[in-house]
Amino acid sequence: MRILITNHGLDARAGTELYVRDLALGLKAAGHAPVCFAPVLGEVAAEISAAGIAVTDTLEGFDAPDILHGHHHHTTALACLAFPATPALFVCHGVLPWQEAPLARFSNIRRYAAVSEACRRKLLDAGIPADQIVMRLNGFDAARFNRGEPAANDADRKTRALLFSNIAQPVDLLPFRAACAAHGMRLDHAGRAGKVLGAPEEELPRYGLAFAKGRAAIEAMASGCAVMLADYGRIGPLVTTANFGALRSENFGIAVINDPPDQGVLQAAIAALDWDDAARVSARVREEAPFTNTVADYLGDYAAILEDGPADASGIADEARAYLSAILPHLSERDALAGKLYQETATRLDRDRELAALIVRAKDDPSAMKDLLERARWLDPSNPDLQG
């Protein structure tokens, strides 16, 4: 079976990009012929291509595949328009990103998959019939993440913690680092602003505790780590055998990550960590969440949606018009945000230039120094050193 998988990009090592990689690898291992399409290619695309899987940034000149597996509405729409008779499945990976909304409504999309209960609710709220929605929970590559010895058995691992996030900046680490230090643990940071883990399967088994969400949290658990959910400047619960089922149904994602990263709360959570329970969680993940299970579920979906034969492409023009109407407000919003960012950046640069000139003048001009102090008080009115 030839399956065309779409994604908004295959450049950065991030959630859906790596999901596409693992899906394509799994489909190939099962004897099928996946093709990955994204308008933006890069590191992940190269990794997929090196595995002998076709990758493209254009649909021009392609023979129609047997199945469309769509991620993100704009690339899914392109594929549906290019191959209007090919049956399709659309996967919703998140509730916040604009690309995840089911705006592409084409006759060939016969089934919708949600990776969490929150995503399922998003699809229902968008008017997708419940009988067209299936749950397809995330997983991990058991062949790659094959070092699942629990941290409970390794004293050195219990002294090392990892914040695994593409969102976090160095300043965001402060409460985590202080809480870990209070328990004799060193904190490292993996992500775009930290160390990019090209081979997390090699790095994660070095840590005892991981702060992560979603796929990263699953991979950390599979590697034997205790996991506390965290990302987007928020924290959630420690994953335990008691809450595992509820948290897994939400993909260990933002729907259950709601609290500010208070140092005291973090310290209390680390103090309550039960390493033996974390080992049981790790064993459960390794039993329940291999990504081969997800691939098998998708193959079942493909077989089901192929049963009704080719899609009816007679209404493709009306469906394309409806999609453009649905996407226009989002494009206008993004255009307005880009304009606002441009204006704010230009204003900030002008102020920085004025401030630089004022600093130079203040070296020899008392009145300029007075103006400089006034500017500083305006920028930071709570600073006691600037009062008086």
UniProtKB/TrEMBL annotation:
It is an enzyme of class 2 (transferase). This is Glycosyltransferase. It comes from Hyphobacterium vulgare. GO terms for molecular function: glycosyltransferase activity. Gene3D superfamilies: Glycogen Phosphorylase B. The keyword Glycosyltransferase applies. Keywords: Glycosyltransferase, Transferase. Its EC number is 2.4.-.-. Residues 64-144 form the Glycosyltransferase subfamily 4-like N-terminal domain. SUPFAM superfamilies: UDP-Glycosyltransferase/glycogen phosphorylase. The keyword Glycosyltransferase applies.
